[in-house]
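Hey team,

Filing this mostly as a record. A colleague (T.K.) asked me to run one chain through the structure pipeline before their review meeting, and I want the input and output archived in the tracker in case anyone asks later how it was produced. No errors, nothing strange. Just documentation.

Input sequence:
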Amino acid sequence: MNIDKNKSVIENWKSADHIIHDILKYSCDSKQPIVKTILAMQDSSNLSITKIRLRAEKFVNKIDNYEINLFSLFLIIWTTKVISFNLLVEAEKLVSRIDLIKKNLVCNEISTYFLVVKSFYYSSLGDKENREVNLLKAITYSNNNVNIKFREKILNQYYGFLSNHGRLNEGLDKFKSKELSISKLDGIQRLFFQYVNAINNVNMDEAQDHFKEIKHHIQYDNIAFQELIKQNESLHFYNILTAWKNNKTYSEIVINNNPTYKSIKSLLLNKPKEALFWAREAVIILKSNIHSSSLHVYVLIRAEIANNNANAAINLLNSKIASGNSHFLDDFFYTRAYLLQGKEKSAIHNYNRLLKNALKLNAIARIEFELDLSCELSKGHLHSFLTNIFSTNLQNRKGPTSTKLNYKNNQKSKDNVGIKRLIGNSKEIEIVKKSIKQYAKIDSIILITGETGVGKEEVAKAIHEESDRKSEPFIAINCAAIVDSLLQSELFGHKAGSYTGANQTHKGIFESAGKGTVLLDEIGDISPLLQVTLLRVLECGEFRSIGNTKSTPYYCRIILATNKNLMKISEEKLFRKDLYYRLNKFEIKIPALRDRAGDIPYLAKYFHQLNHHNKNKISLSQSLLDKMNQYSWPGNIRELRHEVERMRMLNSQKLSYEKEDFTINTESITHYNNNESTKSGETLKVASEKEESLTTEDKLILNDQNKYRRIERLKILFKKHNRLTRSEIIKAFQISSSTASTYLKLLIDENYIIKITPNSSPRSAYFILK
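Output structure:
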């Protein structure tokens, strides 16, 4: 171990020679409460995310002067934890908090580590562009007197990122200095990235040469390296690509049951309809495939174009790029889509750029492979035709071409403002519209109530847009998505020097909104302490920022929203009665979708037509509308919108939809309690079929946190749903990622379930009954 017990956590950590768990445990300041909290977050297998957050927030706004590097490390590790639990709203606030710390006050290692974690945050959002930006910044910081092992870890991440996108040559050109070149990486790691890059660009001879070197490397049998090989999504395509390269009969290609591989194989066999079926299956399983990398990312786009669905493919490409996940191959798919639409000039422009980037990245073989998957084209015709057109042009043009694409998302922004945001003409929704018009003119606090997914934020925006404040900012914040200490800073701001890391004054949203509107969503979930603070603020019309002795008046309008029954929880002493009475002067109750069923056809048609490039109107059969009306929609409008998006994605070529296109299995739906908050990261309420008939003893067993009782309940969930993700299990049981992994490993060892890993992201893995 050899940790210097006379050195602090930061001093030992900067050396990067030890596991952080041991550093936290054995350094000279290991007894400090904040160090103990960091250790608890690192070793959180027995703590729920709620307990971790409660423990961590005690230190956020304390006046105690913690050593700035230690406090920054605390915030950074807290950020990694909430990201792993998919609490991305809280992660965003923590990232903003760390950003406020002046970089000249912390060591370069802290600045570097923060940028790496920030890149991890953007990756969780599917934003590959900002992931890369922050990794590059981290490399720059790591070049300033940072321990060489730190730098190598960051280079590992960066070159790994590039290789997964077939862009390793770009990194080699960018970093030619010895300190930052790929030659600085561990031998087997370097070979592995070159191997992955070759596969992504379909240079199979090169890939085979690298793999031969890897197999003879002394570290090949290392467990960690073997796990890396298993998780890398690019390597799963090896059999398909090798067969294609060697001109084997495609029907003989051996693949597993992953629908992505089946879709590619179907295209190679010139079966586009079958390929589209499997591509849609892949979307259902992977959910966020357009935010992936490697050959996974284009599975649905590829199949849509092969079936002549150009508009659907362009929508997917625009969405992918708008999310920050551009790739040089986007031009290939735009070219195909534009040719289907008869837009030859646009196709020529995109193909010209594609060829230059492919030459630069040594990825011509990838284009050839993709052409063989292009069922709508005559094989080789497009490539030879356009190559001849551009060959002279390519020779004459100088200078490298960036692989970054700057397409704007062509999806139209919603035109509806004010009460036009509310779709439908039922008596129930007309009452809501009337209240909006009436209350918009009253300069007072408004409370919006209704079940989860009914559109409370839309109503708040409508009030703002119907009011005289419409030209001022509208700011919404989910009060349940972040812990109290962060929430107070977000609402009221803080004074410079008010706590460790507060090097500059920060305005809260009450001040930033000016004379606009602030929406405090999920107000029924705030803590008793914050309830007291909020009551005082609302009664006095002024707030006090953290660390300030003087109050500041605010001029914004306050709207509050909740899916809780505030009267009921105030009777249960979970919410202050005086605050409830203060909020309850003007209330808008939004009906559940099932109580305004007459609006379902209007909403469904609206969502079907929304952002649709095809000018032809969508039609929904009466049998489909009847089926929609019969369903209770526990998730309300949000669930309806998601269902419509799913139907569109799975039937992109259609303009007319039937009841068979409805994807919700109404017989196996678990109805969740809509009076409970559904904020990110909270416990999902897994209801038993007849909970009201359970005995007290049964309920105690069901609620037991014992490991084996949990595993029994997990088995029940698998029997019911057949397929679950780790994230779903974490949310259902409110357990840590490591605890979920332990339970899943036990079930795998029992041969009860099997793990499917479609790509390198741990969050893309799922588990199915064996």
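Quick notes for T.K.: The domain at 418-584 is CATH 3.40.50.300 (Rossmann fold). Confidence is low (pLDDT under 50) at residues 392-413, 668-704.
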